[in-house]
Prior knowledge:
The chain is an alpha/beta fold.
Amino acid sequence: MKITRILAYRVELPLHETTYKWSGGKSVTVFDSTIVGVETDTGLIGYGEVCPLGPFYLPAYAEGVRAGLRELGTHLLGEDPRQLTKLNRTMDAALKGHPYVKSGIDIACWDILGQATGMPVCELLGGRYGEDVHLYRAISQESPEEMAAKVAVYRAEGYRRFQLKVGGDPDLDIARIFAVAAMLQPGDRLVADANTGWVQHEAIRVVKAVREVDVYIEQPCFTYEECLAVRRQCAHPFVLDENIDDLNILLRAKADLAMDVVNLKISKLGGLTKIKQARDLCVSMGIGMTLEDSWGGDITTAAIAHLAQSTPTEFLFSTTDFNSYVTLSTAEGAPKRVNGRMSASKRSGLGIKPRMEVLGKCVVDIS
Ligand code: MG
């Protein structure tokens, strides 16, 4: 089987809640997502999606996905999309870095492998665990009272895991954590995600102030070293996210005992092939995981569901259904949230069919 054409479509994904806000005053109102199609000489077509969280979250931006595909695409024509490790080596040889550019192609090729073998991606990634997986809900940064009120709204939608966006003024963040924690019920889990927003001394103040609260602390500071310093003075379960973007830093963080849970995102690692390596390593090393992506719609959510449900249940801390945050559906067959949970399709590949009328005209066409 050979890759004969690579296409990309640009879609805008508005939000039900209008704006998503996190640390440092960063916000997005309409997400700019790229859907990647990989065509083959057999007629099989696979799809992937890459949607950065704006241009200021990770070293990734929406137009960069398209520019990168134009650069990389011609190197992949004629390659076998089912030989994923080899395909990733070809991508890494042709374009240094830029993992998010490669992510959409890699996801699309897993979709092709699934369709070619008649197997769901979840089963190809290692096997299906359980009937479904539990979801977390991110609580966009607002006043402590508004954020606390959201807990009841999201719990009514079935969510039991809440990720509070902090990383602002430390005194306000302490108030946010106490206000939201007061709304929790037995069985709920709370994460305070600072998204690199605190400097080290502020982070230490916050973790000491909320010492008695049952809360996980996620990515308090900008650098790995600052986070490690906070971790060493922190009594809470600790999550690293933005700093963990390849296997070398994952292994270093394990050696330093720098985290209890790691947040792995498909496009941050560079696709399903590379996140599978990291995921399997975390299982072997005893590290819990939040498995997700930066953002996205139906196709990203489908890829996340296959990844999450192929992870041993006790290691899956949480995952996300981004397609429920956005107002636009880009594919049929994507996972739908039921009681705060979702499940991976049992159809072959990702189990999705893009709505071509929504995708419109392609903006990248390599053949
Ligand atoms: Mg995070």
